[in-house]
Amino acid sequence: MNRRTAFVALLLSMAIAPIALAQNMELSTVQTIRIKAPPDAVWAYAGDFGGISRWFPGAQSSKLVLKTKNEEGAIRELLRANGTRVREKLVAYDPGSMTFTYTYADGLVLAQDYFATMVLKSVGDGETEVIWSGRFKRLDNAPPEQDDAALVALYTGIYKRGLGSLKATVEGSQ
Fold first, then answer.
1. How far apart are CA 28 and CA 153, in angstroms?
2. Bridge partners for 156 per DSSP
3. With bands split at pLDDT 50, 70 and 90, how would you rate the model's confidence at 69?
4. What does the mean pLDDT of the chain come to?
5. What span, in angstroms and rounded, lies between the C-alpha atoms of 29 and 152?
6. Residue 1: its pLDDT value, please?
7. Domains of the chain by range and CATH?
8. If you write DSSP's letter for every residue of 24-67 in order, what string do you get?
9. Which residues contact 169 (CB under 8 A, 6 or more apart)?
10. How far apart are CA 122 and CA 130, in angstroms?
């Protein structure tokens, strides 16, 4: 390689490096709670994809807007407590294993490449462990104050509050 070719290669690598580094990293959070109720009782709430507003404090209302039951491809529309709307798509749903995964479809989303999964497991003595996990990336046009740590803290708080409310709702209905 001659000097001119090496110099051009160096310039190109310097120009491309910032673009490669600008890619948002995948982030994640996992929250777990134990609920004093059998899995079927918890699944009646958590597994009702369109009925999340029955137990989730951040949802003022929710309804299925595509499909009429909990199945892959169903889309729910949430009216958040702050007045914003978002649609989420059910990408996996397995009532036998008591697990489902969903992603953002449109609306005022908080992250990109967002996938959340909820899993229910019997832990004996009529109790259920609920695991809510999410993986996501910061929005390309996120405000400067929303760095990676702030986004992880946001979803961690959402999941913690949601699971606490699910516990209170289910245990209160027993």
1. 10
2. none
3. very high
4. 90
5. 7
6. 55
7. 26-172 (3.30.530.20)
8. PPEEEEEEEEEESS-HHHHHHHHT-GGGGGGT-TTEEEEEEEES
9. 45, 54, 55
10. 9
